[in-house]
Amino acid sequence: xAAPKKGRKAPGAPGRPGRALALMAIVLLALVGGMxxxxxxxxxxxxxxxxxxxxTLKAQNEPGQPNAINKTNMDTAVGIMERRVNGMGVxxxxxxxxxxxxxxxxIPKGTNSQQARDQVGTTAKxxxxxxxxVTQGAPLPDPGKTPAPNPSATDKDxxxxxxxxxxxxxxxxxxxxxxxxxxxxxxxxxxxxxxPTPNPTGGTSGTPDPQKTPPPAQDPATAKLEKAFAALDCxxxxxxxxxxxxxRPSETTIGCGQSPDGTSWDKYILGPAELEGTDVxxxxxxxxxxxxxxxxxxxxxxxxxxxxxxxxxKLMKQQSPMNQFGIVLDGNVVSxxxxxxxxxxxxxxxxxxxxxxxxxxxxxxxxxxxPLTFKEETVTTVTPALGSDQxxxxxIAGAIGLVLVVIYLVVYYRGxxxxxxxxxxxxxxxxxTIMALLGPxxxxxxxxxxxxxxxxAIGITADSFIVYFERIRDEIREGxxxxxxxxxxxxxxRRTILVSDFVSLLSAVVLYVVTVGKVQGFAFxxxxxxxxxxxxxxxxxxxxxxxxxxxxxxxGNGHKWSGLDPKRLGVxxxxxxxxxxxxxxxxxxx
Length: 590
What we know:
This protein has about 600 residues and is an alpha+beta fold. It has 15 helices and 13 strands. Helix content is about 45%, strand content about 15%. The chain starts with 16 loop residues before the first helix and ends in a 34-residue tail after the last helix.
């Protein structure tokens, strides 16, 4: 029989089981150590187990759209809200419709409920509007705060990204063109009132004589804007939220934005929208290392890039502040950068962002605008009483199932059950620690379906061990001793285990993709435990069997309680060879 080629392992060779077991030990120590180091020693529980926040939102029609509340728009809103909450790192959140005009949002305990409330119902109407004028508001009552110095005139030549106007950020473009004492005149100037009528003498005067010429009739739209602008107090949070209500995107409107030095809220008159949120392809909060600040980067669609280029081309020819465009989010001017060159494709919003606020704004802009306006009806706290009862019943059922599996393994496989139980223990430790670490990492929350997925995984994992054990037994039935049987059985068992786990993993992935809410928890847990099954079988079960077969007499000699006894498997042990006396008679002497 030809010897195997040098450098190539012979079929059924044992390999190096010690290295695999050492690697598994390192992985276990790293996971357990990371769990205790992070301080998160228990998995994060879902709303059905730990309670949480339930938010009820009532849909309202947009102005001029009396029939906007329909199934299509409600389903679209549910999808956007789900993506927003998941974008916060929250898992297992439930978003579903109730009736014709209500949406229920259930968020597990441990989530920033206020942040979630701010995001799920926010309409996130984003518009890019040219700035017509800016009026400084009254200083905020903060006597201990010293206003920042006014920026120099050379700041106008800085790039638009550096001149962005945001809360608390100095800007070179905050030059007011009117004061609070001349608000009506500011509106008129901003809207470019019609030229004065000729006086009775036939000449044209720059200022008509009020005693001889009656004032021209005021446009109703201008009167409406004047009234709203004069009444707007941007220092009042409630008025800031309603700034711009009643004005369509195609109309000139008003808005509020914090002053560059953060000491007041300025009032804006803004022209018709040039771009809107649907022109933004994606947005994300990022950290600018060069300027050491958080910002929101935006990438426009093809149509949005063209609109943005045309807008900046027009604005760069204007004088301050009409060379600015206001980035208006829900009536508030979050940034008002000046334009010194034609821009297209990408833009950024800067301001007094921190990591949380920048990523939150990027999340809202990325996942689009809600097709409806929502009013928060109720916010209630969900108690975990019912879920705890169900969890207790589920754990009891899981424990009963586990005990039955252990009894079956001990009775049928005897000593091999020790290998199976150790493998199950290793798999359980890895599953628990990973779930505990995934809670703070990605917001994974363990709910009742996820617990069911973990219980089902016990059977899947035990099935992999049984496949391997039966392959070893088949090799012994063919007359091989244990050590060769362990190695020759592995290639066949390995293929079967991989195919079986691949089918389970594929089912989990499909289920996760096509479902939402709690069912995704079941699919995620099933997929996770399936992957861990492969890791445990390859790096623990098989190497452990190799060591037991070669290093112990209990398994190596096929003890009757090892589960690998040849007699119990119906095979006669090989006969021991004895020296035979030669039958040839020696010739007698003559």
